[in-house]
Amino acid sequence: MRPVLCPVAALSVAALLVSPPAMVVRAQQSPILAAMQDEMARSMSELRMKDAPPPYFIAYELQDRTMIDVSGRLGALVENPPHHIRVLRVEVRVGSYDFDSSRFAMQGFGPGSAPLTGETVLAPLDDDYDALRREIWITTDDAYKRAVNVFARKKAAFQNRSTTDPLPDFSKEAPVETELPLSPSSEGREAAARAQQPSAALGASAVIDSSGVDISAIRGSRYYLNSEGFKTVTPIHLASLTMYAETQAADGMPVRETYTAVESTIQDLPSSADLVTQARELAARVIVTRNAPVGEEFTGPVLLEGLGSSEFVAETLLPLVLARRSPDAENPRVVPAQPTPFLSRTGLRVMADAFSATDTPSLKQFQGKPVAGAYVVDEEGVRARDVTLINKGRLVTLLSSRIPQKNFPQSNGHGRAGGAQAGVFQLESSLAIPAAELKSKYLALLKAQDKTFGYIVRGVRPAGGANSGPGIEQVVKVTLDGREEPVRGLRFGNVPSTAFRDLSEASGERTLYSYRAGLNAAVSVIAPSVIFEELEIQRTRDILQKPPIVPSPLQSQK
Amino acid sequence: MKNVKTASAVVLLCVIQGAGAHTLHGAASPIMGILQSELQRNMQVLRQQDVPAYFGAYTVYDERSTEIMASFGAVERSDDNHQRFATVEVRAGDYALDNTHPIRGDTRAMGPRLTQVSLPLTDDEKPIRLAMWRATDRTYKTATEALTRVKTNVAAKVKDEDPAPDFSREEAQTYSGSPVSYALDQKAWEARLRRISALFAADLQILTSDVSLSVEADNRYYTNSEGSQIAQGDVSCRIFIQAATKAADGMDLPLYTTYFATSPDGLPDEKQLTTDARNMIELLGRLRTAPLVEPYSGPAILSGRAAGVFFHEIFGHRVEGNRQRNPDDAQTFAGKIGQPVLPSFLSVVFDPTLKKVGNIELMGHYVYDDQGVKGQRTIVVDKGVLKTFLLDRAPLKDVKDACCASGFSRSNGHGRAEPGFSPVSRQSNLVVESTKSVQADELMNMLREEVRRQGKPFGLYFDNIEGGFTNTQRGSANAFNVLPNLVYRIYTDGRAPELVRGVDLIGTPLAAFAKIAATGDKVDVFNGVCGAESGGVPVSASSPPLLVSEVEVQKKAQSQETAPILPAPRTAKKS
User: Fold this and answer.
1) Is the CB of B574 inside 8 Å of chain A's CB atoms?
2) Cα separations (Å) of A102 from A45, A158, B457?
3) Do A130 and B72 touch (CB under 8 A)?
4) pLDDT tens-digit profile of B484-538?
5) Is any Cβ of chain A less than 8 angstroms from the Cβ of B208?
6) Are B432 and B543 in contact (CB under 8 A)?
7) Which ipTM score applies to this complex?
8) pLDDT (tens digit, 9 = 90+) per residue, A204-237?
9) I need a labelling partner for A307 at 20 to 30 A (CA). Which of A75, A548, B350, B517 fits?
10) Shortest CA gap B118–chain A (Å)
């Protein structure tokens, strides 16, 4: 089904696709939008507190969400009926685009200390104009009073600070209306089938202490309206699956392997049969890892293969291309500024010359498979744009939201998951070689550096703590004769932002990896297998527990 | 610091009795067999360790619930839930000294939590055994670490004045109650709550309001290494109506009404709910313009419900046995066994076996407590004299001349906890009994007389209390603060009672009890959920109205938020 886009008059947005098929819910008539519009108009013209600034911006967002959570444990199900809620978020800003009540962390605890992103309340499930409008009214009143209070404190905090080049708090963007067809609600049975059999397959081995399949899906609609004229009606759909198996090595080291899949819908997740295959592989891998020796610390060339490479890119390179900005704070020591090393590197070399990176939210399919990170409009109502981020190793731009950042004053439609976020991040090399040749290139590189062994990493997970890089889930030690031996107990050291300048090789084949960034948003990464000339690999610092005293009930039953 | 707080502002329930097609069974049920066998398998090995486990208990909670909430005529939530989870308790050491022994000088000690694991909804043996085994291993290891700390602490700190053992010996119990379930016409209830909640939309000064129904069927399976196997279930059904307005000075004025029953027949019908909602709207309107009361001390009457909360907060929490063990607790009543603590016309009984007072069902009823001990009717105060405490399986130092044969070495079935917490002695159904009761008119006359005698301009009548809190720790004021939301001034010159607002009832416990002068004759009941160390547990408190010769009130904490700037939107667009 194609999106129905209706840009407001003065817009620079490209062509519209008009094709309202029969299934489209006619959102214009919905009491939800009517109640939002009417209360918005009244609030913008009448909501005033004596001796306080009026609102200059109001946004209403209503999310109608049905959540499905199903888990499988050794073939038995843990599931709840679908959970349907409507959540209303009201954002009121006072001040001006240059300096307003947003982006300010106040001292103290409790409500009000975190920067304002609006008041969030439960909204009626019934399409009842009166009840909804009443909820919007009382929540807008709260949000406005909060904004006035924050604005006063922010002004006070800034009156004695001098700023060299002040950035506005909020970017001005041309309003646009976007209305996409809403999707029908989801089916829980689809999830149960994908949890039950695979979880039984995971439990086949008696040495696995704990295992399971967890599926979490969300489906619904999002209505967004702001006082500038932005209007968005879009479907919400996201489904994620995590399969895990845990055991303990003889030395007490915990061993955990996972498999994840993130798609737009439960139906798009791998079939039950495919998941059973994945479960068997996962169970086998856990046992291999459990019996593997602990790896050695290492600094030198590293080959990242397939999914492992895409996961590594998601953990390390992708965050660098987000033009995020930390909130201002009443006490700046409490909220340290996030480092954004690429902010001032536009035009400079940030990767090896052959590499280019883009973010293409318009990419809906990759090699015949759906791409979960694709989207049409971001959470601030701004249309998603395809963006070239790195061209021939040079930084072109960063992904931005409506929070301006140095050198990036406007949004390029990436205001997602509460800040700037990627959609479909793609990495490729103009000098790619077939994946099958990467290993021999890697062995040659090891030899040239006088190494006796190296590591091929095939699975990566998020960083476990401060001062460490991503975790490693699947890694083999490879000797110069090409022999591979699984090892365990390793993780990456810190990966500096300069590491990508030393990427030496990449494959032509690329792997799609999607993950969840927040409740409603998925991010996809499409990346080749790569060789880094130098990365640091360390041992994990797990606290080792003694193995269980009583043998597993699965063992004693046999 | 531990505040013991009773949240009466708790959702109301109504229980629907087993229409019964549900699958859970008692001691013979598959899950009980799986639990018992896995527990024995683990304990056999753990008993042989250098630091032996001497006691283990598994509880499986199977909880099914439906919650519906409507606000201003629209449904905001309508959810079904079904979950199963288990808690695991393992004690290391022995009955005399184990890992639960209080650590002296540890002021940050919070209520201990039990290991909790979620389980599949079906009686599948493998996943249940695997989950219980993992949790048992974790729990045992934590217990051995705690025992090491306990032993070090016992050796290092001042000698314990209370050499009572850490765990009582109780007989193994077998009980197999019928599994409970409920059937609910969810659509009909949604429609009913929509209609009742819509009444509040007519008053544009009412800022927030909702009406909710919560129905819950809990089946519990308890087994321990001493051989107890207890399967019991409760259905509870509550309705909760709340609405709040603001006075012109910004003061928040909330009112609540709650209903509890253990069967759908026990719930009020729509006519009754509508009447009560209209009364609430009318009262809120009067409260908005009611005069403020300045701090005052003088005579007062507490209505039956208000008196119930008053006793629960100020008396009940102080006779919970675990407080007498805690060296940081003020232990108001620790040395008072056999001595008068209340006027001689009052007795206080805690009776979990009691299902009803009059025709009002009680939330504090249960057959077995959360340690597998049968709930017992316990006379704590007999004609003013303190006889015993509410006891869990942590014995108290025996008091000489104590009344009871067993002393304080055995539980009286008050070891209670919210699922997931470690049970401690908590209240059940508190019942205040009086031998000096007079009719309502007579009690009011006695109040007026007392007002005249003391030369006060008026007395107070506390009609309803929303909750309260009290502090029982040493090193802080052992005061109580009870939060009334309906208070009247009673005059002696023939003027009608006058609704007022803005006061909390405060005081200190021993002084307050001494001033109870008489009681009314009509008992009323407060049902609610009490929150303390071991989480929220359902309780009730029943009492006749109390005439107190002197109470003190202070100004309520007040919101600084003004009323909404714009008036509520008119209902113009109703289609």
Assistant:
1) yes
2) 21, 14, 53
3) yes
4) 989 999 999 989 999 999 888 988 888 888 899 999 999 999 999 998 888 999 9
5) yes
6) yes
7) 0.86
8) 788 899 999 999 999 999 999 999 999 999 999 9
9) A75
10) 8
